[in-house]
Amino acid sequence: NPNFHPSVPFNLALAEWRQDKFLEAHTHIDEFLAAGIKNADLLFKARRLAENCLFAAEAVKNPVPFNPQPVGAGVNSPSDEYLPSLTADGNTLIFTRRDDYDENFYVSNRLPDGSWGKAVYLEGVNTSQNEGAEAISADGSWLVFTACNRRGDGSQGSCDLYWSQQKEGAWTKPVPFSSAINSSDWDAQPSISPDGKTLFFSSTRPGGQGGKDLWFCSRQSDGRWTTPENLGKEINSRGDEQTPFVHPDGQTLYFTSNGLPGMGENDLYFVRRQPDGSWGKPENLGYPVNTRNDEGTLTVSLDGKTAYFAANPPGSTGGIDIYQFDLPQHARPQPVTYAKARVTDADTGYPLVARVDFTDLKTGQSFVSARTKSDGSFLVCLPAGIDYALNVSKEKYLFHSENFNLLKT
């Protein structure tokens, strides 16, 4: 008797969904929705299932290329490895490894043959407590990560965002961000913009669209951070949005969601920044990158061709491993390169802390202004399609200028 209880078509739709009978499931979830159910949570789940049925039916008929390969024995081990983070030059990979019951950071450097060297314990940041969900700045000098339930160090409670800087070859003692960013709620999974001035993260703080939402804040010229803002209902749903990753192009944001139309649980999405500074409509990466299972963090190389993620497929080294795959064309970021150099005294060769300015020659607007590190080095990501002027200045030194024409790149 199909009218025995209003839940019958809903449960039937779930059973058909799990058998990949997407159109049949859509028929029965429509019957359920037509019954006039008033429960808001149940209605949200039913409507998303209806959207998922239509999306999945088309996605499985139009699969995207997907052939993930493990990144190698230098990184993967019998323990779990996950949450990869990459510097802009593609030469440093930092990730989380679960050592028994303790989560710690490890770092691997790319070898001349393109493979990853043996990962080593990240001294100065790791503690006897868990560290995870990290992001490395484009130049590799700034690490932001998540730590939970710490006491007596200025944290706000629950999970908070912490930061550490690399100075003279060593990492400084991590400290939590102030209450300007951290809250008493869950704040985690940071991502740093290529210029180091915008921080994206996921949070359950009040003022969002649902459960875990994506938020952002900006660092001002005086070093202070703006009050975090919600990325809005176009990106955030009534479900959970997590693991943001902003590409070095500064225009493409990748994240996971279990509230947007997709293949099932947490799917991977990307969204592009529009010319007016707003964000467009999120797009699903497609099947079989996304499946009926949970998909996690995605990190994309500077050239936009290679994506890194964690998975536990049959044949993995042990538990969860880090894999890489060729990112489908439709999900690739904008073309971008980087300028990397050192500023030194022409006579002595000593490194200088100097001001570095990149300007868009067409508009005259400053693209990025920064200071070199203590060793005189800097790394700046440069999106293609712009003619840049580089100006290096320091008091009592002659002005230095160069040009980077990326209009035809």
Characteristics of this structure?
409 residues; mainly beta; 3 helices
Description:
With 409 residues, the protein is mainly beta. The longest helix has 20 residues, at 40-59. The relative contact order is 0.11. The chain has helices at 8-18, 22-33, 40-59, and strands at residues 69-70, 80-86, 92-99, 102-109, 120-121, 132-136, 142-148, 159-167, 170-171, 175-176, 187-192, 198-203, 213-218, 229-230, 241-246, 252-257, 267-272, 283-284, 299-300, 306-311, 321-326, 336-342, 355-360, 366-371, 377-383, 387-393, 400-405. It is 11% helix and 35% strand. Strands 6, 7, 8, 9 and 10 form a 5-stranded antiparallel β-sheet that branches. It has a 4-stranded antiparallel β-sheet with strand order 1-21-20-19, with no helix packed on it. Strands 2-3-4-5 form a 4-stranded antiparallel β-sheet, with no helix packed on it.
Topology at a glance:
Blueprint: H1 8-18, H2 22-33, H3 40-59, E1 69-70, E2 80-86, E3 92-99, E4 102-109, E5 120-121, E6 132-136, E7 142-148, E8 159-167, E9 170-171, E10 175-176, E11 187-192, E12 198-203, E13 213-218, E14 229-230, E15 241-246, E16 252-257, E17 267-272, E18 283-284, E19 299-300, E20 306-311, E21 321-326, E22 336-342, E23 355-360, E24 366-371, E25 377-383, E26 387-393, E27 400-405
Antiparallel strand pairs: 1-21, 2-3, 3-4, 4-5, 6-7, 7-8, 8-9, 8-10, 11-12, 12-13, 13-14, 15-16, 16-17, 17-18, 19-20, 20-21, 22-25, 23-24, 23-26, 26-27
Helix pairs in contact: 1-2, 2-3
